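Field log, afternoon session.

UNIT: design team B
ACTIVITY: writing a sequence onto a fixed backbone
BACKBONE:
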């Protein structure tokens, strides 16, 4: 059995940016240095290459985010008789849910919404110019 090929600095930096973005965390140069353990030079070269390839963009001075490579599909739900719910994504009917299944899905989606909201609030800058207590 052979060992897998070691990952390049470019791959390590890209995966780190993707991981941070998945958790709604900013990917700053300093943060990338901390989590990857790579040198300044290696991180800078990887960032430059990833920007050139169109895989990331600079959203603020020194902060990066991945560029979504997937095309979003339309998502719709249709209420059916007897409390049933039809879920469609793109041209596919994903599910014809019973009321109990719809409730289970709603709970999961509400949890995602709550988590997204918590991360969004954590990333907001503090209010400026307010009175201090």
């Amino acid at each position: 059995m052979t060992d897998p090929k070691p990952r390049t600095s470019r791959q390590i930096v890209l995966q780190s940016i993707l991981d941070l973005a998945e958790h709604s965390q900013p990917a700053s140069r300093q943060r990338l240095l901390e989590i990857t353990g790579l040198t300044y030079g290696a991180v800078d070269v990887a960032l430059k290459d990833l920007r050139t390839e169109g895989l990331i963009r600079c959203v603020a001075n020194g902060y990066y985010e991945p560029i979504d490579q997937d095309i979003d599909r339309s998502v719709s739900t249709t209420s059916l008789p007897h409390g049933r719910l039809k879920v469609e994504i793109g041209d596919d009917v994903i599910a014809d849910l019973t009321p109990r299944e719809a409730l289970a899905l709603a709970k999961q989606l509400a949890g995602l919404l709550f988590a997204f909201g918590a991360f969004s609030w954590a990333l907001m800058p503090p209010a400026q110019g307010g009175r201090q207590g």
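LOG NOTE: The first helix runs from residue 9 to 22.
NEXT ACTIVITY: expression trials, pending approval
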